[in-house]
Write a structure and sequence with these properties.
Structural class: alpha/beta
CATH class of one domain: Alpha Beta
Low-confidence stretches: 59-74, 153-159
Strand order of the largest sheet: 3-6-7-8-9-10-11-13-15-16-17-18-19-20
Largest sheet: 14 strands, parallel
Strand content: 15-25%
Radius of gyration: 26 Å
Shape: globular
CATH superfamily of one domain: Ribonuclease Inhibitor
CATH architecture of one domain: Alpha-Beta Horseshoe
Number of strands: 20
Mean pLDDT: 78
Helix content: 25-40%
Oligomer: single chain
Number of helices: 14
Length: 414
């Protein structure tokens, strides 16, 4: 509050810019309440610059004067339509729903928010027609119902005009040749992520993945099911050889319909054809060998971020990682239960390591962790294993490297 000469507190003497700055820190509920204070506040609260990014992750809230309580109207179409009508406009660029939306909502968004660039929604693909607003979209996040995994996620997706699309994320659903052909409409697609999806491509159409994504820089495949691991290897080979701009590749917990185990080394051999790769993260895949890591060090000179999560990193593999990648900045070896103090010592005095994640590395002693960390001059983030035995480790590191950000694996979200 601002105090006037007569001792009364008021906000009226603040400039419009000062009030707008204050309003920018308010959530949707508080902002809508502020709009009811006065005509001036109502006008300011509806300024477009306050509504460039809207997150409806927790739904729309309203306030009841009779019961003096807040009501969550997360799934009330009328509440969302009212918000769009009264507050959102041409300035809106990003909106996140995380709740089911309807075509009526999308139609109003298209009318009121012609400059919308990013949308993050949940919904049934057979009922949601994103072609209503997709002309100018740059980023699309689709969170489909889990049952969509067993059927096509496209729905009316075939009608999408996606000329400006740069980022596409699909959770649950089938990856088919029709879906990839639709993505071919965008010549600027840089980032693609599939999570929990079933790949239904025929083997001879694997090349579509690389042909439709010539400018791809980031590919993420998390908990996806493939027809076979031979299919996955061919897919990685096509992407590595044809997507010449690929810089980041993430493959976590793949599975196959034939039940055969994935082989980490064979996947590394395929991805080594991509000379521009900077970020590589593999998770939940067995079969990592020293020979595969040596091949990586010779074939991927630009690699600065490595993640082998639950891939059974051994002492010998750690030695090759430490010596073979002098430009390494980030290393994630979560779940390396075979790694001992001898292996971690190989990392000592590495000149460029900034981020080190050791979650679930149960065979490492506190003394060796401390000694290793103190020899890494650029390290600023450290994830420790989830055990109470490392409390003394934290105390020592905090006193000797006060700027180090230390995280405990038990406090992190899985």
């Amino acid at each position: 509050m601002v105090c006037e000469s007569d001792g009364q507190y008021t906000l009226d003497i603040l400039t419009d810019d000062a009030l707008l700055h204050i309003f920018s820190y308010l959530n949707i509920l508080d902002r809508s309440i502020a709009a009811r204070v006065s005509r001036r506040w109502n006008c300011l609260a509806k300024q477009g610059e306050l509504w460039r990014n809207v997150n409806l992750n927790n739904g729309i809230h309203t306030y009841s004067e009779t019961s003096q309580s807040y009501y969550i109207l997360s799934y009330q179409e009328a509440a969302i339509l009212n918000l769009i009508n009264n507050y959102l406009g041409p300035c809106l660029r990003h909106i996140q729903f995380h709740i089911p939306v309807t075509n009526k909502i999308l139609r109003l968004l298209a009318l009121r928010c012609p400059n919308l660039e990013m949308i993050d929604i949940q919904g049934d693909p057979s009922k949601v027609d994103l072609s209503l607003i997709s002309c100018k979209l740059i980023t699309i996040y689709l969170h489909l119902p889990l049952e969509s995994v067993k059927r096509s996620p496209i729905g009316k997706f075939a009608l999408f005009p996606l000329f400006r699309l740069e980022n596409f994320y699909l959770q649950h659903g089938q990856v088919t040749d029709k879906l990839l052909c639709r993505l071919m409409q965008s010549y600027n697609l840089h980032s693609v992520a599939f999570e929990g999806c079933h790949w239904q491509l025929k083997p001879y159409k694997i090349a579509l993945m690389s042909l439709c994504l010539p400018e791809l820089t980031h590919l993420e495949l998390v908990s996806c099911q493939f027809p076979s691991y031979r299919f996955l290897n061919r897919l990685v080979h096509h992407v590595a050889t044809k997507c010449t701009h690929l810089e980041s590749f993430i493959l976590i917990q793949p599975s196959s319909m034939d039940g055969a185990p994935a082989d980490c080394s064979s996947l590394i051999i395929e991805i080594c054809d991509q000379k521009n790769l900077r970020h590589l993260q593999l998770g939940g895949i067995h079969g990592l060998t020293v020979e595969a890591v040596v091949l990586m060090s010779h074939s991927l000179p630009n690699l600065t971020d490595i993640g082998f999560i639950h891939c059974h990193v051994t002492n010998d593999i750690m030695k090759e990682i430490s010596h073979g990648f002098p430009n390494l900045i980030s290393l994630d070896i979560t779940g390396s239960k075979c790694l001992s103090n001898i292996g971690l010592k190989h990392l000592q005095k590495h000149a460029n390591i900034e981020i080190l994640k050791l979650a679930s590395c149960e065979n490492l002693s506190c003394d060796v962790i401390v000694d290793t960390v103190l020899t890494l001059p650029k390290l600023h983030t450290l994830v420790l294993p989830d055990t109470t035995n490392y409390e003394s480790c934290v105390e020592i590191l905090t006193s000797k490297k006060p700027k180090l950000d230390i995280l405990n694996a038990g406090l992190l979200n899985p």
